[in-house]
Amino acid sequence: MHHRMFGLAVVLAVSSLAPAQGDNVVLLGQLGGYAFYNDVWGYAHPDGREYAVVGTNTGTTIINTTNPAAPFEVAFVNGPNSIWRDMCTFGSYVYIVTEGGGGMQIIDMSSPDSPQNLGTWGQGLWGNAHNISADEGTGWLYVVGTNNGTITLDASSNPTNPSVIGTTPGPYLHDITVANGLAHCSALNNGEYEIWDVTSFPFTVLSESPTPGDFTHNSVANLAQTVAATTDEIPGGVVQLFDISNPNAPVAAGSYTANPIAVPHNAFIVGDRCHISFYTEGYRVLDISDINNPVEIGSYDTFPGSSSNFDGAWGCYPFQPSGNVYVSDIQSGLFIVRPSTLDIAHTPLTTTMDEVGPYVVTAGVTSDDPISSVTLTWSVDGGPNTNVPMTPTGTPNEFSATIPGQAAPAQVAYSITAVDSAGSSTAPASGEHGFVVGVLTSIYFDDFEAGEGGWTHGLIQQQDDWQFGSPNGASGSSQGQPWSDPSSAYSGSNCWGNDLAIQGFNGAYQPNVSNWLQSPPIPTGGQQGLQLRLRRWLTVEENQYDQAKILINGQVVWENPNFNLVDNQWELLQVDISSVSDFASSIDIRFTLESDGGLQLGGWNIDDVEVLAVSDCFPTEYYGVATPGSGGNEPTITTFGVPRLGSNDFGLTTTNALGGSSAFLALGFAPAQVDALGLTLLVNPIATTLTTTTNGAAGIAGVGSATLTFPIPDIPGADDLNLYFQWFIADPNSPSGLVSASRGARARTCQF
């Protein structure tokens, strides 16, 4: 079946069945030697030494990682035989629990190169436990997944002999993390992420939120307790983010998977980064600064085998002061890695009428590691890329490079890449920045906040699942699939999409469908060179199976490529539609989706649809000062129409002149600033002069006006020609005693 080919394609793309490797994550050191590994934790001694605490099936190994390139074991603590072992730290003590026996082992790390096993405490309280977590602020320990419920201990005053706070019966908790009075609980069998208020015992359940795969293995929150992440430990499970600003009502946000058939295990949040051990996909790190659009920014694949099983990276620990991250691989042991801390801050360039340039691109680039290079990559109108080194500006952490000036109309795309010793980073994280050289005019825009906007939809075959409203972040053909729709519109509240999971829908398109969404007629006004711009969140199989298309007046202008297209954030899509629109007085935009009988993903989601005219017809520029005439009145100069090649409607007007007087419109090809005889000449040399007579009563100051049209010939070489104009009005009361004059006007001939 071709849906299996989809899975294989992703496996090859992600891991290529290749040896362990990193992307923006560097391997610092590795240590193995035991037959089976499970979870990992860390301990940092006050003097700066760092240690990994790694579970095996026969006990716990404690490893000095202060020099990550040469880690060494300082102790091995035998324990009950079990493939499940978990640990946490409080102060200078390590607490270890296992499914293989009751109680917890306590290790004294005050002399960390000679750890002391203080024995097993509390064997009568539980016969087995799956996990343990410490609230470092209170010194309370939470033991979960036991045969006796959740057991809470107080180690704050006596860490080697804690007191029992109490026992909380069901539901079965597989994992727990606690800070600032809130416990983040993974009710595995209920498929729920629960938040408890643990400021006093007995605890209060504040909220219960379902997770996409209905098998909630792990749940964590950031230090501010505003963002949480959960993992569903099933093939095809996802890392689901939640906005927990109100812990009584968490809101599901974006989700992530490293591979649509793989299994996520444990996640932790540090700042704006989410660190994940993803079994066969190794270690992954996400930028979650926008929780609706998590973006993978680094990975290290510890496991060279195939996906969709429970081999590879079991745990990760990203909390050491050094920034080094521990990853425990079931087969290979401890990996010490360091994700790139590169950050690129850049304000994108915007539309400009400057054709001379250059266009200066500056970026603030920071990293905890030495930066080896910063590169600007740019292209024009979809042409080849040009790479330019960016150099320091003298301002700390700031780099710059330039893009040469471009003749309008031009669309410039660019990105910035920085490299340090741990990897590279790009801005933007996906796609490219872009700006237009020329005049950008919006002739149609709809963000769907005022309603459906006259858009219509229907079916050709099987089902019409186009819906309008707020998307719900639903997964694909079943709750366990990771191809997720957005959980919010790109802007405002509303968008259009295939199956927004409204009114009982599940978020996925159906097999063998053919349906469409179409705009109302959009007048072009004769504008040439139109562009279609929109925000897209699209998930479809490769083109040979499923087809997502955009048509203008029935002609295809864009379709999905022949590989699986799985957006995980709102993407900017800009399409040149001039081949159709240049010959049309109006256009309609149609989005279509056709699917086969195999795999079904999420389909189209569309927001902020805009039709733009990109022109090289710049507005008139006025310059210089006028020479006044009778009554001190200064004649004006104003252009009308557009100096487009072949145009007969471009012209110039003057007002505020002497009535009934001779008027002369001077044309030249260069500006001037010549003051003589009380007159300022602003066009020189004058190539030609057109003559007329001002309207208004003869001899009356300020009432005169005149208009002349100036046809623009459509001849080779006439494009982009600068034309300079100035009105002269016969006026004996002017300073020269001959004429008054307007200021100057520059108009540029154009094609579009």
Q: How would you describe this structure to a colleague?
A:
With 752 residues, the protein is mainly beta. It folds into 4 domains: 2-15 and 32-339, 7 Propeller (Methylamine Dehydrogenase, Chain H), CATH 2.130.10.10; 343-437, Sandwich (Immunoglobulin-like), CATH 2.60.40.10; 443-615, Jelly Rolls; 621-748, S-adenosyl-L-methionine-dependent methyltransferases (Single Sheet), CATH 2.20.130. Strands 39, 41, 42, 45, 50 and 53 form a 6-stranded antiparallel beta sheet that branches. The longest helix has 13 residues, at 2-14.
Core attributes:
752 residues; mainly beta; Methylamine Dehydrogenase, Chain H; Immunoglobulin-like; Jelly Rolls; six-stranded antiparallel β-sheet; 64 strands; 49% strand; elongated
Rg measurement, Å: 34 Å
Described by the principal axes of the CA atoms, the overall outline is elongated
What's the CATH H-level superfamily name of the largest domain? Answer: YVTN repeat-like/Quinoprotein amine dehydrogenase
Please state the structural category: mainly beta
CATH class of the largest domain: Mainly Beta
How many domains make up the coordinates?
A: 4
User: Biggest sheet, open or closed, and with what strands and sense?
Assistant: 6 strands, antiparallel
**Residue ranges: pLDDT <50 for 5 or more in a row?**
1-20
Number of helices: 2
In the CATH scheme, what's the topology name of the largest domain? Methylamine Dehydrogenase, Chain H
Fraction of helical residues: under 10%
Reported CATH architecture of the largest domain: 7 Propeller
Strand content: over 45%
Question: Kindly, what is the distance between the CA atoms of the first and last residues, rounded to a whole number of angstroms?
Answer: 50 Å
How many DSSP E strands?
64
